[in-house]
Structures are given as structure tokens and as C-alpha cells.
Design brief:
Elements (H helix, E strand, L loop, with lengths): L3 H12 L5 E8 L2 E11 L4 E2 L6 E2 L4 H14 L20 E3 L9 E3 L6 H5 L14 H10 L9 H9 L16 H13 L3 H13 L20 E3 L5 E3 L26 E2 L1 H12 L3 E2 L2 E2 L3 H7 L6 H6 L1 E2 L2 E2 L5 E3 L4 E3 L17 E2 L7 E5 L4 E6 L6 H5 L5 H15 L2
Antiparallel strand pairs: 1-2, 1-18, 2-3, 4-9, 5-6, 7-8, 10-11, 12-13, 14-15, 15-16, 17-18
Helix pairs in contact: 1-12, 2-6
């Protein structure tokens, strides 16, 4: 497999100061090749290596969704079950008259939130960063940091349930805290911390020794720096994650974990997970999901209207090329699929992370591609065009890597 073209293409973005470094992987035909470019620590001048550990942000969501579906197979719940069995705090939800409207102008929720709503982001939950109305401040004030949070899981759930939804459950796709809530519901269902359940059911069976909600002290030297951009758009090391969503060092006493964006991982660890989507639900002799469940994950669950109206930061998500399954984007029209979501043939899946992480798994040829970087950008910087280079780099990687044989 010729990987020089990938290295040359991505090195241009590194040399231009648009990304500090990236770790990339292409697996096809049973052969795995990795490409590492640039620096994992721009201050210490340490290079990106195959075992560099990155924050994978929303690439956490497919892992949590998979764990939930493993519990579904265990008979712990059904997709249509209301979550109130496990979270009675959500028994009397209210819905804003308008997503940007006053918090006291609400109507009763027409139906309870279900597990399917959480897995497809149709719960009416959101992220504060996506709004300018009162709901944005209410989310920030009541819930705190998205990744590291001083609240206990039970206190976080109670506060989230005390906030109005931005839409009726089931009505529309709204990207947000659905997966975080799903992760904490898993804790209640399994009667164990989410990190322990993940380790027992997924990480240990697949050999994912470097994936978790924190990085062990013995692996600190392999951790990628928190790279972002200063006011002039120059690469720099940040003191913390943008928005204050995570500490530079997670306190050992913290009990809240973010299933939506809190995991760290490496190329090989994420490959062990992603192969499941390309290989029928099992990796070597470890089966996570039955083929029927995997088929549900990789089947679009949104209506045509929900696809056409889904937005993130004002931009369409699934209007062309993609739908959304149970926790992952699904390629529906390959010739129209934006590679930043994921590419590949019909039925390929993936979901990127806000910090420059990306992956796709294609069951048509059994291939997996992964791109990991730390590209931590404030929303105001994105509006100024700062920090967009990593997404162009990902598009180049996907385009070149898809042609490699």
C-alpha cells in the first residue's frame, strides 16, 4: 500500500501551521498501514507516533451507543422504552415554544423520551454552544463543563431534567447531550460506573488498553498536547480545552463522565473498535453485536424531513449523502457524501470529533480509515476561518486513502 501520497498531502497542512500533527491509519484487505506527521507536543518538539493518545471528543459517541445496544441485546431495555424507568426525573418534561425563546414559555412534552430518541439525537436535548437564546446560559449555568464536571451523575441528570427541551421528543434531529445522558443511564442499568462497564464489555475484550476518560500517569508522555490557535490564528498550546469544558488534568475524585465526548484513545485502539462495523459485528473472535443489531446501527433512522432539516451551527448535516443510524452517520448516496462526516460506499459509517478526530468503516470492502489530531478551536475562531485546515486535511486523507489498494 503506497502511503507516500498521504504523508505528502498532510505534511503541507503541518508545514503551513494549520495543524500541529496527525496520526492516520488505513486498513484494507487485512493490511494496516499508519502514517504519522508533525508534532504531538509543539513545545517539547515531540513527534506524533502510532501510540500517541488523543482526546477523541465525539468519536466517543459511537462507543457509548454500541455499549447501549449490547445492553439492548441483553434484554435490559427496548428501543421504544421510555427512559423514565431508569430516570424518573424526566417524567414531566416541558418544551420551549421556540429554541431561542423565553424559558417560561413552554408546553408539555407530547411523549416521553425513549432510548431510540437518545440514540438518534431526537430527544429534544441540545448543546449550549449551538444557541444564543436563554437556553444557552441555562445549560451552562446548570450543567457546567461538557467533559469534566464537578457534579455527581445523579445531580447532573436532575439538573438536565429540570431544563426545558428545545423540541418535542421524536420530532427533529438536534445534536446534543443525548449520548451523555445515555451513558449515565447505562450506569444505572448496569449499577456500575460507566468507565467500568466500558472496560469490562468493550475495552478489555478488544485489547483497547489506552482508551478511557483519563490518561494514566505512566502514559503521560504519549499524550498529545492541547493544541489550538491564538488570536492571530497561530498554532499554540492551550492551557485547557476551549470553553473550559475539561481540565488540563482530570481530578481523580471526579465521578461524572462524558459519554458524548470524554474519551481519550489511539489509532490502534480505535481500529479495534471500528473494525466491528466493517466485519459484521465481531473483531477476530470477539463479538460485540449480532448482525441484526449492527444492521440497525448502519441503517438511516431519520425521516426525509428530519434529514433535510438537520443542522449543526447552521449547516446541513444529512440533506445529501448521509443519514443517521443509531449513533453513527450512514452513507446513503455515496456520490454526494461529504467526507468530513464519513465517506465510503453505501452503508459505510463514521462520526467525527470536534478536536480533529475522524473515522469511517466500510463493510463493502472491509476497510477502516482513522485520522487523529488535536485541533481545539473556539466557535468565534471558526467564524473567522481559524482552525478549518484540519477538515481540509481530513478530506484529502479520505480521498487519497480511499484510492489506495
Amino acid at each position: 500500500m503506497d502511503i507516500v501520497a498521504i504523508e505528502t498531502a498532510i505534511k503541507r497542512y503541518v508545514d503551513a501551521g494549520e495543524v500541529a500533527g496527525a496520526a492516520m491509519l488505513v486498513r484494507r484487505g487485512g493490511e494496516t498501514q499508519t502514517i504519522c506527521v508533525g508534532l504531538r507536543d509543539i513545545e517539547a518538539r515531540r513527534p506524533v507516533e502510532r501510540d500517541t493518545i488523543f482526546r477523541i471528543a465525539s468519536m466517543s459517541k459511537p462507543i457509548i451507543s454500541t455499549l447501549a445496544l449490547m445492553l439492548l441485546e441483553d434484554g435490559k431495555f427496548a428501543l421504544g422504552d421510555p427512559i423514565t424507568r431508569w430516570a424518573p426525573e424526566f417524567s414531566a418534561m416541558r418544551v420551549l415554544g421556540s429554541p431561542e425563546g423565553p424559558l417560561n414559555e413552554t408546553e408539555p412534552a407530547g411523549m416521553p423520551i425513549t432510548f431510540e430518541h437518545l440514540l438518534t439525537h431526537r430527544s429534544g436535548l441540545t448543546y449550549s454552544d449551538f444557541h444564543r437564546g436563554p437556553i444557552a446560559a441555562a445549560y451552562r449555568d446548570m450543567l457546567g463543563g461538557d467533559i469534566d464536571n464537578e457534579l455527581s451523575p445523579n445531580a447532573w441528570i436532575a439538573r438536565l431534567a429540570g431544563l426545558p427541551l428545545i423540541d418535542q421528543p421524536g420530532r427533529q434531529f438536534h445534536y446534543g447531550k443525548s449520548t451523555d445522558l445515555l451513558g449515565l443511564l447505562i450506569e444505572r442499568i448496569a449499577d456500575a460506573p460507566l468507565a467500568d462497564v466500558l472496560k469490562r464489555r468493550i475495552f478489555v475484550p478488544l485489547g483497547m488498553t489506552d482508551t478511557g476518560f483519563s490518561v494514566a500517569a505512566t502514559n503521560e508522555g504519549r499524550r498529545a498536547g492541547l493544541h489550538g490557535f491564538d488570536a492571530q490564528g497561530r498554532l499554540t498550546t492551550l492551557p485547557s480545552v476551549p470553553g473550559g469544558h475539561a481540565h488540563a488534568e482530570r481530578p481523580a475524585s471526579m465521578t461524572f463522565v462524558s459519554g458524548g465526548q470524554g474519551l481519550w484513545s489511539t489509532l490502534d485502539d480505535y481500529l479495534a473498535f471500528a473494525r466491528m462495523f466493517a466485519e459484521g459485528g465481531a473483531v477476530d473472535d470477539v463479538r460485540l453485536l449480532q448482525p441484526g443489531t449492527l444492521s440497525m446501527i448502519a441503517t438511516n433512522q431519520l425521516t426525509d424531513h428530519q434529514r433535510s432539516t438537520a443542522r449543526m451551527l447552521g449547516l446541513p448535516l444529512f440533506a445529501r449523502g448521509h443519514g443517521f443510524g443509531l449513533g453513527v452517520a450512514v452513507v446513503m448516496e455515496p456520490d454526494q457524501a461529504d467526507p468530513v462526516r464519513c465517506g465510503g460506499g453505501k452503508g459505510a459509517v463514521g462520526w467525527p470529533g470536534a478536536y480533529g478526530g475522524w473515522w469511517q468503516a466500510d463493510p463493502n470492502d472491509g476497510s477502516v480509515m482513522i485520522f487523529l489530531a488535536h485541533n481545539m478551536v473556539q466557535l468565534e475562531q471558526l467564524a473567522q476561518g481559524i482552525g478549518l485546515g484540519v477538515w481540509s486535511a481530513i478530506s484529502d486523507f479520505q480521498s487519497i486513502g480511499s484510492r489506495l489498494r
